[in-house]
Design brief:
elongated; 41 residues; alpha+beta; two-stranded antiparallel sheet
Length: 41
């Protein structure tokens, strides 16, 4: 799935299930980085 984030810079976050059924680690880090950037304004 791809989510378009509603803040400036338009980061797109893609999360895919890994072999274990969970999101892939590097994609979770990308999501957390995008949220941090949003929080910093």
């Amino acid at each position: 799935m791809t989510w378009k984030m509603p803040w400036p810079g338009d980061p797109r976050v893609n999360l895919q299930r890994g072999k274990d059924g969970n999101a892939k680690g590097y994609q979770v880090r990308q999501l957390l980085d995008a949220v941090d950037r949003k929080d910093r304004g």
